[in-house]
Fold this sequence. Notes:
The chain has 539 residues and is α/β, with parallel strands linked by helices. The protein has helices spanning 6-20, 45-58, 80-90, 102-105, 109-123, 142-175, 206-217, 222-231, 237-243, 258-266, 307-322, 370-375, 380-395, 402-445, 451-501, 507-513; strands at residues 24-30, 63-70, 96-99, 126-129, 134-135, 188-193, 196-201, 274-276, 295-297, 337-339, 347-350, 359-362, 377-379, 514-519, 525-529. A hairpin with an 8-residue loop joins strand 11 and strand 12 (359-362). This is Site-specific recombinase.
Amino acid sequence: xxxxxxxxxxxxxxxxxxxxxxxxxxxxxxxxxxxxxxxxxxxxxxxxxxxxxxxxxxxxxxxxxxxxxxxxxxxxxxxxxxxxxxxxxxxxxxxxxxxxxxxxxxxxxxxxxxxxxxxxxxxxxxxxxxxxxxxxxxxxxxxxxxxxxxxxxxxxxxxxxxxxxxxxxxxxxxxxxxxxxxxxxxxxxxxxxxxxxxxxxxxxxxxxxxxxxxxxxxxxxxxxxxxxxxxxxxxxxxxxxxxxxxxxxxxxxxxxxxxxxxxxxxxxxxxxxxxxxxxxxxxxxxxxxxxxxxxxxxxxxxxxxxxxxxxxxxxxxxxxxxxxxxxxxxxxxxxxxxxxxxxxxxxxxxxxxxxxxxxxxxxxxxxxxxxxxxxxxxxxxxxxxxxxxxxxxxxxxxxxxxxxxxxxxxxxxxxxxxxxxxxxxxxxxxxxxxxxxxxxxxxxxxxxxxxxxxxxxxxxxxxxxxxxxxxxxxxxxxxxxxxxxxxxxxxxxxxxxxxxxxxxxxxxxxxxxxxxxxxxxxxxxxxxxxxxxxxxxxx
Length: 539
């Protein structure tokens, strides 16, 4: 029997040891250029990983880590999975990279050439592209190098071509008023209607969106709103999108952040307006906007929040950012002081040259004359004195006694209770109408009516349900308004009670009671309260 030479055994063992020295990183990417329907299943993340694992097994390579990027452009080299791969390469954790084909790693031919020809060799990294039959450990002839360069150029051209087609497609959709956004915002879901996607309210989290706006409307800060949502274990938008569970699991740590609250409060989608174009980016030009025009469609879909509440919330945020930027110290009148003549915000300034500060408010509008500048100004101490005297007089108002407050409180709650009964009545009618649809179908299936009669009955019942839903939505809006009134009234009464016990002008007192203060010439002042106590109950 012939013997295998020790030389051959040694060579084979060296080969195995060499393969075992490789710490392999398998990289897979799914493009964001196509929809799930259009994608070739063989290009899926799972298929790419399976192909890489089979290749590694057949070639005696052991995979150390798998890196994935889902719905990411090949022109974008700031992908999370890709950056993690490079980080591990630099740290020495990975010294061999496997991809299905060159386009998975990237579609920029200049960057790809730099990686394959310069970066990977410098770092001592073996690079394998399975479908391109490329392995940098093996010597590459001129034809193979030329082929790789051509493929990189083709991939680059493909990215340009897709970007141009997307740009045209988006612009056409924008101009036709179609909803082109990829993901439905929190509080909404997509429903297909013929060839178009429609935004419909997601009833599961509708009340969460309302809670966020009503809390902000009542003066609660974004951070406190986020803390309260986390206390209630409500899933934040990213988790809800994945799980469709309104509440977090016990072991789930992700939560709401003030930035998330801020994005929701600024989004006009919640008043029924669709604004598109400004956030659509070019796949080829590394994130540059595909469109220079912002396309707006008013009343595109059913709103969750009234325009009045949305405007009030965002006007308050705008004032908080813009006004009184050169003020010093705690400014309790921030966002409240205006000129009665120019209607501009008044600026706060310390005019004292000693350690004891003396603040004044004046109109810094450049259009004002020097004479006007002197007339429209008031010291903070004088302002405190006037506001304090007005509030003391307000406490004497007969409409603010305990008996009147209880009467108004009960009146508002009774209105809400009556409206809730109407909601329940509409719910019963809607449920009955839905049963009629089922009965109508059963009657048709059993031959009781012909197709024309069945379709006619079905359409009539659908119209009836839509009418009932519209009436129900109108009542829900009224309930929301009354609920805000009750909450505002309770805050109002609480602040006045605190002032009666301790008549000091505080930040909270001003923000909760006063809408704005207008300063005219010679210290004339007009205070606009958030509640007109004499007319409010019937409003």
